[in-house]
Amino acid sequence: MKVKILGAGREVGRAAIAVEYRSRAVILDYGVNFDEKDLPQLPLHYPPAKLLGIVVTHGHLDHIGGAPIFYISRNPKAYATPFTRDVARIMLSDFLKLSGYYLPFEEEEVSLFLESTRTLGYGEPVELGSFRVRLRDAGHIPGSAMIEVEAGSHKLLYTGDVNLYDTNLVGPADLSGLEADTLIIESTYGASSHPDRRGVEEAFYNDVREVVENGGTVLVPSFSLGRGQEIMCVLVSRGFEHPIYVDGMVRRITELMLEHGSFIRRLDVLEKAWSTVNVVRDWQDRRNAWKEPGVIIASAGMLKGGPARYYLKKLAKDKRNAVFLVSFQAPGTPGRMILESGRYAENGPLVQARVEWFDFSSHAGREQLLSIVKSVKGLERVIVVHGEPEIAEAFASTVKEELGVEAIAPSNGEEIEVS
Ligand SMILES: [Zn+2]
Ligand SMILES: [Zn+2]
Predict the structure, then answer these.
(1) How far does the centroid of ligand 1 lie from the alpha carbon of residue 365, in Å?
(2) Which SS3 state, helix, strand or coil, does residue 229 take?
(3) Can you name the residues that pair with 128 across neighbouring β-strands?
């Protein structure tokens, strides 16, 4: 068996891994990244003729955004959990709307990809030529999966994005009875530990209340798939009494989550949250939302676009207001700029509103990643991906030193013989 890194080699995102056996292959994820100019960057090319199938871990664009490129027909078959397949439709159509001009595929390829996607439940095996594939709950967002691949006598496990925290939306990854010769593991937070989750939630809740009770409005820029819903649940489950507005794609995705209730850890909490919040449907609603003290949960999570941009401009000037960032802020994004310089545009005005960052990560931290490695029986080799170069490298060294298992952090294009 051979592994070829097509994307996510020493970088966060653009996940894409080819697993080859007897000159046929399956691809695990085929995502996209965005460069400084916000142009989409696809993984390395792979010859479609060798492909037996594409298996995707979850609906975030950095794992599915490039997959339609393989679909000029209904071949090869793709596999995903039912929630991932359905949410992919929303994510990809939004992606086409925003970046379509720069993409090597169009609506037709997206449709063919979705029509070619078979759904797989956790634990349900599927045979693709000599490959046997199974999905396992990854605990990252609803529907997220790790992928187990077997061919000949070799077993490989790919984590995709993985988390061990118990949240409202999802429980921890399923690590029971893991066995593999090769582990491909993400390392987004491979060099740091997250603070206690309950403590973060409590601090967030108290700070939001403080701002609102002093007459301010809190903007919470959030990704529409995962974080936005989690924030709603955190506020409502703790009895928040003030208005909460939600704006952006989060609406369609929440409705889809409620349809796929079996993928939601605390469905009752999400249902209650959804019946409590005010959904922004048009410009009239949008103009009203920021005029009273309350919370606005709006995309995009790093303030690169979406309705969050509009609210930011309206709320930034008043120091009674606040901007509470709740996700990873990539270098160069407006979210990161506010944290570093207090401005969201170069030479722009200083933001007067209070700005804070809360560690609501949906990725395992260093200790948790190590415990995942430890939980795999029979492990011979660890391949570290989906991390900044120094972080992926550091995590690979930690695995070698602390666990005595061979570990590398390969670059895109590298091929690794694993059996
Ligand atoms: Zn990812
Ligand atoms: Zn993800």
Answers:
(1) 14
(2) helix
(3) 131
The answer on pLDDT for 137 being more than 90 is: yes
Q: How far is the CA of 139 from the centre of ligand 2 (A)?
A: 10
pTM, two decimals, is: 0.95
Kindly report, residue by residue over 357-375, the tens digit of the pLDDT. 999 989 999 999 999 999 9
- For residue 14, which ligand has an atom nearest its CA? 1
Q: 334 C-alpha to center of ligand 2: Å?
A: 20
Pairing of strands 77-80, 51-55: parallel
CA of 46 to the centre of ligand 2 (A): 22
Q: Tell me the pLDDT tens digit for each residue of 53-112.
A: 999 999 999 999 999 999 999 899 999 999 999 999 999 999 999 999 999 999 999 999
Enumerate the β-bridge partners of residue 21: 24
**Cβ atoms 199, 398 nearer than 8 A:** no
Q: What percent of the chain has pLDDT over 70?
A: 100
Cβ-proximal residues to 68 (8 Å cutoff; 6+ apart), any chain: 92, 105, 109, 110, 112, 113
Q: Hey, what domains does the chain have and what are their CATH numbers? A: 2-192+362-417 (3.60.15.10), 197-357 (3.40.50.10890)
